Amino acid sequence: MRLQGKVGIITGSARGLGKATAVKFAKEGAKVVVCDVNIDQVNETVAEIKAMGAEAIGLKVDVTNRESVQKLIDDTVAAFGGLDIIVNNAGITADSTLLKMTEEAFDRVINVNLKGVFNCAQAAATYMAAHNGGVILSASSVVGLYGNFGQTNYAATKWAVIGMTKTWAKELAKKNIRVNAVAPGFIETPMTAKMPEDVLDAMKNKSPMKQLGKPEDIADAYCFLASDEARYITGTVLSVDGAVVL
Questions:
Q1: Which terminus of the chain, N or C, has less C-beta within 10 A?
Q2: What is the pLDDT of residue 191?
Q3: Residue 191 is assigned to a structural domain of this protein
Q4: By percentage, how much of the chain surpasses pLDDT 90?
Q5: 125-167, pLDDT tens digit by residue?
Q6: DSSP classification of residue 173
């Protein structure tokens, strides 16, 4: 198994892409820390992983709060004896056009999607640097690469994640820490399932493959980048988007 014996934290993993990643890591032998602000959904995901015969714990974390993030790292090490991988997946949206976006909506998305990634990466990197190695992975987006109507705040954070990823890859290589990002395209989620058929068709038609991605496609990308198979890959942004931007 690709991640046998590794300890991995996946933020925002109570549901959606984060949950799919937590399940994938568990299947590949990792000891998984499921964390989110919704502890009930966290516990449900942990129960599913344990039912597979894998090891997992669930923690409530607010990535915007540095004390909460540090407790996440401390509790992970206490439970599993170390930390090898962190996936900065937690994120939110608060969409609006530039002329209508409120300062509160802008700040809220920046705080979770950007400062939250910084908080988690810094806390994890501090531990990893002291223990000679680790992997930091973060969620960007095709929106961060190419922009999207009505998503000034979200696009700003996802572009910034790319900048931080490349900067950290340069800074942390000497500590044997690899840093990469994944940029998903349009993915099937419970949210997209509620969209009108014509909207879904338009999303599918943006890709030459004429289909949406699945959460497992993103989870597989994270798993590869977290594994030793990617030992010489750092500072990279892996687009998993069905060529939607070509």
A1: C
A2: 65
A3: no
A4: 89
A5: 999 999 989 999 999 999 999 998 999 999 999 999 999 999 9
A6: G
Q: Contact 223/188 with Cβ under 8 angstroms? A: no
Please provide the DSSP assignment of 11-73 as one string: ET-SSHHHHHHHHHHHHTT-EEEEEES-HHHHHHHHHHHHHTT--EEEEE--TT-HHHHHHHH
* Single-letter residue type at 132: N
Domain housing 56: 7-185+218-238
Q: pLDDT (tens digit, 9 = 90+) per residue, 183-193?
A: 999 999 876 77
Helix 16-27 vs helix 215-226: crossing angle, to nearest 10: 50
Q: What is the mean pLDDT of the chain?
A: 95
Whats the size of the chain, residue-wise? 246
209 has a pLDDT exceeding 70: yes
Contact 225/137 with Cβ under 8 angstroms? yes
**CATH number where 222 lies:** 3.40.50.720
Tokens 């000497």, residue located: 174
Number of domains in the chain: 1
Average pLDDT over residues 90-109: 96
Q: Is residue 200 part of a domain?
A: no
Nearest CA to 201 out of 215, 211, 190, 214 is that of 211
**Cβ-count burial of 15 within 10 angstroms (0-12 exposed, 13-18 middle, 19+ buried)?**
middle
Distance separating alpha carbons of residues 85 and 181, to the nearest angstrom: 13
Q: Is residue 3 within 8 Å of residue 28, measured between CB atoms?
A: yes
State how far the alpha carbon of 148 is from the alpha carbons of 24, 97, 140, in Å. 29, 10, 13
Q: Which residues are catalytic, by number? A: 154
